[in-house]
Amino acid sequence: MESRLLSDSALRRIDREITKYPPDQKRSAVIAALAVAQDEHGWLSAEVMDEVARHLGMATVAVYEVASFYSMFELKPTGRYKLTLCTNLPCALSGATAAAEHLKRKLGIGFGETTGDGKFTLKEGECFGACGDAPVILVNNKRMTSFMNPPQLDQLLDELSAAADRGEGAGKHANYIRGEGPPRAAGSAPSGGSAAREPERPSQGRARAGEAGTSSNPPQAWGDPS
To answer: Which of 9, 53, 186, 197 is the most buried (most CB within 10 A)?
Structure first.
């Protein structure tokens, strides 16, 4: 029997999202389903997306298209805490540029990179709809923090670093960051340390899954329990 990569709890959350749409439009829940899967694993491997596709009755390429279109989804492992800083012009003029430089110096990484201890990934984001609160940091797509000048950034990093030391943070992917192989379902056979399969990128810049929408930077987290 094929081992499952999504837990019963995750599948129940996805099924709850499916009930929000007509029975013949299960695929409309694809964004929420991917968010649930990413919550559980910390990122979206091809195998996890394949399971989402099977559960929704979708072509796998349609799921890949959605996941690769929306910036909140990660197709490679990230740190336990993904810090996304808005660098659009209003924020840049209100301290985001200085905040970015401070974070890069403090963490020793640039945008799109992960610290060697696997705690933090730093990303550049588009508008979060909170220009008056700049600089703004989005933590793991869930928590928005405002007025993040250097003292506040240092406090946030200390808080999240301590949480990471306790094993908190995104998903089950910390061992993969340390080079111990991709995450696998409980009870499944070890993969021998081989890297997880990465999906082929869609050739078009827009998702073709229809119901999933087209906004590349939705301000809220999807798939949370309501």
So the answer is: 53
